Amino acid sequence: MSVDPMAYEAQFFGFTPQTCMLRIYLAFQDYLFEVMQVVEGVILKKLDKMPGCKISPSQVRKCTEQFLLFMKDRFDKLFGKMEEVLLQLVLSIPKNVLLPEDKVHEQFPYSPEQFQALQEEIRQLQLQCRAEVAAEQALRAELEEQKVVKAELEKILQWFDDLEKIFREQGIGSLQESLAFLTQSSKKLQVVLKEVEQKSEKLKLRDKLM
């Protein structure tokens, strides 16, 4: 069998020419075996009808196998020549012929260097696409976080609105003034608390000395 892969022919036919020839070879071989079995059966029937014949079935089988080997040897030689002719003249595409789907290569020929540069450009574009996809995913995640923060801020603003409404209903004044008052009171309490802590430390120190 030919070792040439014949990839272009496989693209056109949908199968490799070598596969086609192998199937033809096996089909002929199977047919030859079947014919020899039929011939052997006919010989055995003829011998049964011949009284006094000293040829045994085992001798017939031996002769049949020898004849089969002889025929197979002749068949292999003939098939080798037939295979060579079919692969060269029937199942091969001439070098100057392009398949319709490959016409674009004739219109836009590329050298190996140009093809390699194009492959590198494609690789760079793929990397850029992956980077853009990753950036888009990061932006989407950030937007989701902003939505959560916005919802929390809206809750806080609603809480301040409700608090200001309560202050107005109680006649306390505006929320801004109330918060300022609370801030001042808190600072005064912090000062008082600090003074209390200092006095407490002094008392503890005096108790230790006494």
Automatic annotation (TrEMBL):
The protein's matches in InterPro entries, at most eight in alphabetical order, are given as: Centromere_Mis12
Q: Which GO terms describe its cellular component?
A: MIS12/MIND type complex; nucleus
- Pfam families from the UniProt entry: Mis12
A biological-process GO annotation: cell division
The reply on keyword Cell division is yes
Coiled-coil stretches noted in the UniProt entry, renumbered to this chain: 115-206
Isomerase among the record's keywords?
no
Stated name of the protein: Protein MIS12 homolog
Q: List the source organism.
A: Xiphorhynchus elegans (elegant woodcreeper)
